[in-house]
DNA sequence: ACTCAAGTAGGGGGAAACCCCTGTTTTGTG
DNA sequence: CACAAAACAGGGGTTTCCCCCTACTTGAGT
């Protein structure tokens, strides 16, 4: 198992290196920016690359995307502070092998490396509860299109901070029906569960 | 020279520890939150404490302030990503012994420790050019200023979509206390009694 | 005629936010 | 010291959100 590390914070880089080595892995290369990281991945083809997302030049997401597009054999683990849903979704879409929040690195990195070594995907256990809805971007209008007419109508009312009871009264339907629609919307938008998150999403994406 | 380190990112903590030890200093204690840091400073009275600013419970600034007020002999170095003027100004006002940006830690920490050891103050060379004016004091900030320190801290965590339970765990206080603070915040901001308005207000006014 | 998606509606339950009330302790300042 | 503000903590309550599950109706394909 040859591993490459990239992080622009030298102290974190040293800490990660020491930790990974203590787990019995061989750290072949370290670097502090994405361009170098990608060059090293291209030439040395390490088994695993552990990348920070915030790096000058090319960030970890871009490196992941290029690794994916060039069909390089290296499996990419993103070790990051970013909790934004869209970032995780992009990483996922580009075939990330592992996604860990820095704050939980100590407990999870070992597990993650084992899972990734077996060729499976590891996602931080804590991520679900930590995911944050971020600001709207252009390509998210696309996901709204998956909603049906009634769902969009209800979503707009949610953005206006109406409760399910109020929406039900306005549309002359049962509160239970509104709740049913809310559930479908949440499913279609792939919002994290167990959280009061639809309302925030709605207020950020409408008005 | 006995040194205490506090940082809530375990990897950075390890990296800093390795680095400081490589410079020939003795790291007496490490911890990952401000409350523990202050307790350790009170009891062990290390010569130097190197603190992160972002920590759950009590942040590095608060620890500095308490060390200052209790006239403890420990000299405090803040090792941080924060470039905001007001943060640095507060640190300065509370007698910070050193202020270093994490991105320049490698080049500056050694120099800083020597200077602080001599009893002088060290400020990151890069800081002047990096200092950022924080958000302008518009009318929204005016109302925020009516909040107490703890209330602001909790408001930020609400903006990060933490539940009261999670906030309570992070700050080592009871869930009931967090709920009490929420109520005070709502009163001070004169928010409507409807559900979740605080959450929406917070996400719109922070970040 | 049959299928499928949409919309409708209900039971039951859990988590979280917010309200009311009551206290105590800590801390800063006059 | 005294007083007020702040933080801390608890009981008990309501509403809302969101989940699970099941159903029925309707309209539009191929």
UniProtKB/TrEMBL annotation, chains A, B:
* CDD domains noted in UniProt: LuxR_C_like, REC_NarL-like
Residues modified to 4-aspartylphosphate: 52
Q: Which UniProt keywords apply?
A: DNA-binding, Phosphoprotein, Transcription, Transcription regulation
Highest taxon, organism lineage? Bacteria
User: Keyword Cell membrane on this protein?
Assistant: no
An example Pfam family from this entry, by short name, is GerE
Report the protein name in the record: Response regulator
């Amino acid at each position: 198992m040859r591993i490459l590390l990239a992080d622009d914070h030298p102290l974190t880089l040293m800490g990660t290196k020491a930790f990974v080595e203590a787990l019995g892995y061989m750290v072949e290369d370290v670097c502090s920016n994405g361009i170098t990281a990608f060059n090293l991945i291209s030439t040395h083809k390490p088994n695993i690359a552990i990348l920070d997302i915030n790096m000058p030049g090319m960030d970890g997401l871009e490196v992941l995307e290029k690794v994916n597009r060039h069909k390089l054999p290296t499996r990419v683990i993103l070790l990051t502070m970013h909790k934004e849903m869209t970032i995780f979704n992009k990483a996922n879409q580009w075939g990330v092998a592992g996604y860990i929040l820095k704050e939980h690195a100590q407990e999870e990195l070992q597990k993650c490396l084992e899972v990734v070594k077996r060729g499976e995907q590891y996602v931080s256990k804590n991520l679900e509860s930590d995911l944050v809805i971020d600001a709207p971007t252009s390509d998210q209008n696309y996901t709204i299109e998956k909603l049906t007419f009634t769902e969009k109508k209800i979503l707009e009312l949610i953005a206006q901070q109406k409760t399910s009871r109020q929406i039900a009264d306005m549309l002359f339907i049962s509160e239970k029906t509104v709740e049913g629609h809310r559930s479908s919307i949440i499913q279609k938008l792939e919002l994290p569960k167990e959280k009061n998150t639809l309302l925030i999403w709605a207020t950020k994406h409408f008005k």
